[in-house]
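Case study.
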Amino acid sequence: MIDYFANPSRFVKITSFIFPWLSLVVVTLFAFGIYFALFNSPEDIVQGSAVRIMYVHVPSAWLSLFSYLLLALCSFFFIVWRHPLADILSRSIAPIGAVFALLTLLTGSIWGRPMWGTWWVWDARLTSMLILFIFFMGYIALSNAFEKNERGSRPAALLAIAGSINLPIVKFSVDWWNTLHQPASIIRTGGISIDNSMLVPLIIMALAFKSFFILVVILRSHSILIERKIFHLKIQGKL
Amino acid sequence: MNSIKNEVQFSKNSLTLENVELSKGYKKLFSNFNLKFKYGKIYLVVGSNGIGKTTLLKCICGLTIPDSGDIFWNNNPIKSNLKDFANDVYFLGHSNSLHPGLSIFENINYLSLLKNSHTQFKNKNDEFGILGLNDIRVPELSNGQKRRVALSILSNCEKPLWILDEPLNSVDKNYKKIFMNMIQNHSKRNGISIISSHEVNDYSLDENVIIIDLNKI
Amino acid sequence: MLSLIINELKIQNNSLKDPIFIICVYLSLLIVFPISIGTNSSLLKEFSPAIIWVCALITFIASIEKFFSIEASEGILEQLVISRFPLYLIILVKVFCYWVSVGLPLIIIFPVIALFLEININVIGTICLSLIIGTISFSFVGILGAGLVLGAKKSNYIVMLLIIPLTIPILIFGISTTNFALNDLPTEATIYLQCMALSFLIAVVPVITSKAIKIYVE
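After joint prediction, the assembly is written out as follows.
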């Protein structure tokens, strides 16, 4: 077993150093982002002010997908190289990804109410996001389902790998099944199709969300590390 | 293909543990553990409960991967050719590896199939007296009877390396003697036996038997 | 190899997975739907593909948690890991035998069930083929789920939670095939899609499940 007091403590040192600066970055980005999103960006002709929800909805969606990829990557590292830090990062990312997926669903639903007249509609994007949310919950459930908490790390990592391999198929099948959602207007082969004045706040908010994500991952991984250290010390009878 | 039991010598194998570090959960059990197991010897691994006998045995089998270090079977690391190693080893764990859904003979055939052993189970090989148990369903056997069945399967599969985890659990005294004869026979055929036990008195100690006391490591 | 399959079949069929029992489970699930929907015939016709597939899914997945439990507690998994057969091959055999004991009875009884749901006789063949591919996929996903929760103590509904996201593509493709068949549309494309999903599973599931078993055995 790799000694717990080597690499992870270096991780804690580095991340503790970054933390205050990162918080500053997050606050600044959010300040700018919210200002631009709520006050300085144009209204949509059809949707009016309600389009501003996009500034929360789209970054959350990007972030939940991003955290899923990160989860799969960390799980792969954990299975192949057995580095305990990879497991700690995976466990930190999972609930955050779940929350962002939920946020995407909620904001999508709120956005959809004035647009489509219903609280929920079964289109490809929202359904995939719902499946992603369930998938995160499954990961969290599995990683905590064992008596010895760490025993669950490796099956959960295997689940993340299996899910990540299957996710393109799920996405493809759901897309193929139904499309009602508006086609992607940022990532398209023709190039960016929304105006700069909307794009800039969107990107600022996306960056703000991403840095917030890193912040929270750092916080959570610290707390998991400390939990494990305490447990380790208790087992050795030093506490 | 029926091979004649108890007459064929195994080839002169060796099992080496090099710089093995092993831990169970948070406890580090072994570090820089070096050991060489020679053919024709019986190794008794003893120690108090929880000291790591089962973990060590499982590591030697290839079931548990050590944190670092290598295990060599005839100078080949078992990591890279698990299949060849699996062909030469028989592991008997705490539980008897008997499926309750199959009869005794079906279990014997199933395990022999898994272990690539072609010896037919004959009457004269029934040292542990299990032929008489054939009518009883496996779930209704007592612990001692199940252990005897497992030991019979062990003696039926002609493998040079035996790794046995507390094989004499719940076994009666007269069968213990039969078991001792069995492993002495095995070592005469150049086989290696690695046995863990917390009752050293069960085993007659002669020059073949080497005791590995984990309390002292 | 053949003896491996025979042994596995003996094991699985001795543990109460009687074909008649399976058919009764499927039928009882099936009955729930018309009762819930009402005897409105057109609604039933619209829902019939979904009903067939969902009931099949539940029949496969309902008790999959216990798939490895006997082998795990009796120490047989250890023997499988250090046996002469590679573990992924053993898992393939187990999946096949699971399908034979649970899926095959359903496929055989399907023409009778088609009568209950007023399905046209000439499309039964296509739907059966689609069901075969789909149920084999369910078996794979089920065994993957069972492998992942090996050793979990608090594993009451967890397997369902894990498996359902992975079964969504199978359901989508399968129900589409059934839908197309019922509406006399060409079903080749969707059958190919189903085969694609299945081949994916054949490649991925044995590897991951064997890794999960090795983790359990450690």
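Observations recorded in class. Confidence is low (pLDDT under 50) at residues 179-192 of chain A. The two ends of chain A are 21 Å apart (CA to CA). We will return to this complex in the next lecture.
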